[in-house]
Design goal:
alpha+beta, 3 helices
Length: 151
């Protein structure tokens, strides 16, 4: 069982990880204990703005928000922790130690080239991601007892 000191609850603002993480959610961050693998969501410190950013790890030193168009080049020394779940309103949603159950799907959708695709197709992909994310959050809401014991 994880110790409360292993987790931080941090308010999230912005839309770069929409639909999985929304503006106003609190992200549940676990300290870095292993090397990240593609698909993990990492909290890191942006060296230019000095703000904390949560984006998906794609490959060495490359991260990107699911809803963002820009790839970030980040040194692994700036990584603070892994996003293990979210608190939205009164509900806590956790995903497993390996990350969100659909992280492979989100990873492929994140890097999907939309350059020459029509706008309706891009928004259709976002809508599908939102539906899958909502379904997973509903299904995982039964696992909230694990984190509530930490509080």
């Amino acid at each position: 069982m994880a110790n409360q000191d292993d987790f931080l609850f941090i308010p999230h603002r912005g839309q770069s990880m929409f639909p999985l993480i929304r503006d106003g959610d609190q992200i549940i961050v676990e300290k870095i204990k292993r090397s990240p693998i593609p698909g993990d969501i990492i909290l890191y410190r942006d060296i230019d703005t000095k703000e904390w950013v949560a984006h998906r790890y794609l490959k060495k030193n490359t991260l990107k928000g699911d809803f963002s168009l820009v790839f970030d080049q980040v040194n692994e020394a700036a990584f603070m922790g892994f996003i293990r779940g979210i608190r939205r309103q009164e509900n806590i949603y956790l995903w497993s130690q390996m990350g969100h159950p659909l992280k492979g799907f989100f990873l492929r959708a994140t890097v999907y080239r939309t350059k020459n695709r029509p706008r309706w197709l891009r928004w259709s992909i976002v809508f599908i991601l939102l539906i899958f994310s909502k379904a997973i959050l509903i299904l995982s809401s039964t696992n909230t007892n694990r984190i509530e014991k930490l509080q």
